[in-house]
Design a protein that fits this description.
The structure holds 2 protein chains of 2 kinds. Chain A is mainly β. Chain A contains 5 helices and 41 strands. Chain A is globular. Chain B has a 3-stranded antiparallel sheet with strand order 1-3-2, with helices on one face. Classes of the chains: A mainly beta, B alpha+beta. Chains A and B meet through helix 2 and strand 26 of A and strand 1, helix 2, strand 2 and helix 5 of B.
């Protein structure tokens, strides 16, 4: 077909002149040194009418006379070149340089750091690496600070770990995946987000609501997927150093190289440590733990475009150590004694995963994907006199086939998955062992009428040794009645087994008794699995105001628990776990406004309302430590690029309304807390100076107004007494913190 | 046995030559922007039998895979021309051409230049 047209094209020039000819190819000059042929470039002899245009492959053939010497090559959007032809028998290959005015195009259609799709049926936000650089996010748990859809809270006053929430629900209800392999789950639930360094993350996709059935049945509130850096795309060398006023130090080095035509590899090394004891609030306890982490990843990327194959092999190793507790605690002499209250948490994790994707080169809609992941997670820890060890070995595998029915408006995804999880826990003196496995099949149908409507309907059937045989249906649709708008609706079901200890490790830093109220036939710590339905609607509207772009988004989600494993903190002497049927729900509403105020100046405002209610044994109550009202504002400004350098400014403001404390009414009066916490206002800011594409430095401050919760731990004077409790954390403990860092990269 | 295979082979190949279920074609379609891309692809895919359509803004190439039993290249071209885009030797009628969004008037050099220089997206 192509040749036919070549002939057609060339015949014009062939017929008109049958004299001597010159031949050549016109290519586009680009950074990647790839030879992209320029189609339709004008080639003519200077000051004559003799000329032609290049064909599909950038080739041309043009008659030649001795008096012709200077050949003009022009193409709209490229600099016009005039070359001298001395030897007409020699083939000419010439590269045209794009006009600098193309830079302008970049500015006009500047990619948003965080973007919502107007077309996808799911309510998904894509967070690019640009957004991640707005805060010196040291690890994944800190990378959501400029994103209003995810709330970041402190889990407890001891471990310093941050906990994320979506739709008012804690992270166990969110499926957190690395390149679509569920990772932050099971034993990794509590600290798993801190095990992925921020610089390893290329982008994050946040989906609110039920999500797709492809990655499993566990997601309830939403899905978060982090794409990691890819050896082929990442910088050849990347170095990041970070130091904070708290004496927290971090370092990251990436090295990527291609080893053969098809294989490339990358080594990613991360280390962090914090060795100074801080006690700003003088309660005798460390404000943040001492820690050390070594984290290494080696990725292998395989690309064979001719045969349509792409693959990844990842090897990861992590060693994380935390020590915290009283200032005078020395693990050598005081471990598991009443000399001083202290805690050590040591985690080792190995991950091996592989991925292979095949695209049929003849029928590009037919693709096959295979994923396989094995991990081993070992945590040994103690909190005061309470010991907690968990070992979790896991296998995840998934085979997926994509195709179309009749044409590309009807897409299907289908496949099977297999999971295996072996848990071995020591909780104080009691041993819990369990093996979970499941085999499932899924089918998802996507319809897109290319105009106003698209929808995704999926279902999976799984057979799980503890959850039984069950169906997980999920549905999403998007409707666009007018320009730049998207109405979305979704519903879906999720089911999961609650790992009550791994998910609530903060309970060990209290004097509370553990109380499991078993359900009849309960198979997971004597409890039944959790089942919930999630329903959501959202509306996104883009607009142009005063020549600048913006969008406004509203969404409402409701999660109805058919069965929930309730974590009941309402008795200050105990923590109780029990199943509750049809008695808890979470409603969330969010309004968000994004507006590009001036060129390079973006603003984002969000208001959130949560109503998360559970019927505890003591009556229906709002979930503790969940602010019902929240406000978020973010502004970022980047100066235009001058001589390769620019400034970037970013500031984030968070307001949290009052949060309910779990009841302390039965405590002695000095250990009683008010019903609600005060409001909390925090401000974070960062300035980045880009010196060149290779080098940049940043300085920033977290919580610059120095807001602190005065007494985050109850009963500090007698940590082995019955009133010790570190879980009443509503705000920052440490106060303001300043940091500086640098990034150096070689492409 | 061998003969059967040979027979099947011959049969399928002749079959394929006659009417491919997944025939590939590349057409030159004139247009300037993402809006054109949407319009061109939509028009192609709505022609019954077209399985996938991908138009490249820079090269103006429309890559198609279609079922020859259900449609012909001629019919596909007609449906693209009907929404206002010139396909190779088939010119869209002025009426169809005028129906495209003003910013998509690819025959107009000013519009072409605007797209190249980024005055319009």
């Amino acid at each position: 077909m192509k040749y036919l047209f070549n002939i057609l094209f060339l015949s014009v020039s062939l017929l008109s002149f049958s004299q001597e000819k010159i031949q050549g190819t016109i290519l586009e000059k680009n950074d990647k040194n790839k030879s992209l042929p320029l189609l339709g470039a004008n080639v003519y002899w200077l000051n004559t009418d003799v000329g032609t245009v290049t064909d599909f492959d950038g080739k041309f053939s043009l008659s030649y006379k001795k008096e012709y010497q200077r050949l003009v090559i022009s193409y709209v959007g490229f600099k016009t070149d005039t070359i001298t032809v001395k030897n007409p028998s020699k083939k000419i290959t010439h590269k045209l340089t794009p006009k600098s005015s193309l830079d302008e195009v970049k500015v006009v259609s500047r990619k948003q750091a965080t973007s919502r799709s107007y077309l996808d049926s799911q309510n998904t936000m894509n967070v690019s690496s640009d957004e991640l650089l707005k805060a010196a996010c040291c690890n994944l748990s800190e990378s959501f600070e400029t994103n209003p859809s995810i709330d970041v809270n402190f889990a407890d006053a001891i471990s310093g770990t941050r906990q994320i929430k979506m739709l008012g629900l804690t992270s166990p209800y969110i499926l957190i995946a690395m390149e679509n392999i569920p990772t932050v789950r099971g034993a990794a639930q509590a600290y798993g987000l801190t095990f992925t360094p921020g610089t390893w993350v290329e982008s994050i996709q946040i989906t609110k609501g039920a999500g797709s059935v492809v990655n499993g049945y566990e997601s309830i509130a939403g899905q978060i997927n982090a794409e990691l850096q890819k050896p082929l795309k990442d910088d050849k060398l990347f170095v990041n150093l970070y130091g904070a006023s708290s004496t927290r130090l971090e370092g990251n080095v990436h090295y990527n190289t291609s080893v053969s035509k098809k294989w490339s590899t990358g080594v990613y090394v991360h280390g962090n440590m914090h060795q100074e004891k801080h006690d700003v609030n003088d309660d005798g306890f460390l404000d943040m733990p001492l820690y050390e982490q070594v984290n290494v990843m080696n990725r292998w990327q395989y690309t064979d475009n001719e045969n349509g194959l792409v693959g990844f092999i990842n090897l990861r190793f992590l060693d994380d150590y935390k020590q915290t507790g009283e200032l005078n605690f020395d693990p050598k002499t005081d471990k598991l004694t009443t000399n001083a209250w202290g805690s050590e948490i040591e985690t080792r994790r190995y991950d091996i995963s592989g991925k292979l994707g095949y695209v049929n080169p003849d029928l590009p809609w037919q693709t096959l994907g295979v994923q396989f992941a094995v991990s081993s997670h070992q945590q040994d820890s103690y909190f005061g006199l309470r010991q907690y060890n968990i070992e979790h070995n896991s296998i995840y595998s998934n085979i997926m086939y994509n195709s179309i029915i009749s044409d590309s408006r009807h897409k299907i995804k289908t496949g099977i998955s297999f999971t295996y999880d072996a848990y071995d826990e020591l909780v104080e003196t009691q041993n819990f062992e369990r093996i979970d496995n499941s085999v499932g099949g899924f089918f998802e149908y996507q319809f897109d009428n290319l105009e106003k409507l698209n929808l995704t309907a999926g279902a999976r059937i799984d057979n799980h040794n503890r959850l039984g045989l069950f169906v997980t249906p999920r549905f999403h649709m998007r409707y666009t009645p007018w320009g730049k708008s998207a109405f979305r609706a979704s519903f879906g079901r999720g089911k999961r087994s609650a790992n009550i200890f791994a998910e609530n490790q903060n309970l060990f830093s209290t004097a509370r008794n553990i109380n499991i109220i078993e359900s009849e036939g309960g198979d997971i710590y004597g409890l039944d699995p959790e089942i919930a339905w999630n329903y959501g609607v959202s509306y996104l509207q883009g607009f142009n105001l005063f020549g600048q772009k913006g969008d406004v988004a509203f969404d409402f989600y409701r999660t109805d628990f058919k069965n929930q494993v309730v974590v009941d903190w309402e008795n200050p002497r105990a923590i109780s776990f029990y199943n509750l049927e049809n008695e808890s729900s979470a409603n969330s509403f969010q309004a968000e406004l994004n507006y590009n105020l001036l060129k390079g100046f973006d603003t984002r405002f969000a208001y959130k309302y949560y109503n998360v209610k559970t019927k505890y044994q003591t009556g229906e109550k709002i979930k503790p430590l969940t602010a019902q009202h929240r406000f978020f504002a973010n502004a970022s400004y980047a100066t235009p690029v001058k001589n390769n350098s620019r400034w970037k400014f970013d500031i984030t403001y968070n307001w949290l309304g009052k949060q309910r404390f779990a009841s302390t009414a039965s405590n002695p009066s000095q250990y009683q807390l008010p019903e609600y916490s005060p409001e909390v206002n925090t401000v974070n800011a960062q300035i980045t100076k880009v010196f060149s594409p290779k080098f940049e430095i940043y300085v920033g401050g977290e919580n610059i107004t120095n807001v602190r919760q005065p007494n985050p731990i109850l009963g500090t004077e007698n940590p082995f007494g019955s009133n010790f409790d570190s879980t009443f954390v509503y705000g920052p403990i440490f106060g303001s913190l300043y940091y500086a860092g640098l990034r150096y990269r070689i492409k | 046995m061998k003969n059967i295979f040979l027979f099947i082979f011959v049969l399928t190949t002749t079959f394929c030559v006659a009417q491919k279920r997944n025939a590939k074609a590349t057409l030159q379609v004139d247009g300037v922007c993402q809006m054109c891309k949407e319009r061109i692809e939509k028009a192609s895919i709505k022609a019954k039998g077209v399985k996938i359509a991908d138009w490249n803004v820079e090269t103006h190439e429309l890559k198609l895979i279609y079922n020859q039993k259900k449609t012909s290249l001629e019919d596909i071209k007609k449906s693209i021309a009907a929404v206002g885009h010139d396909v190779e030797e088939m010119k869209a009628t002025d009426e169809a051409y005028n129906s495209v969004h003003p910013c998509c008037r690819y025959r107009d050099e000013v519009v072409q230049d605007d797209h190249k220089t980024g005055k319009t997206e």
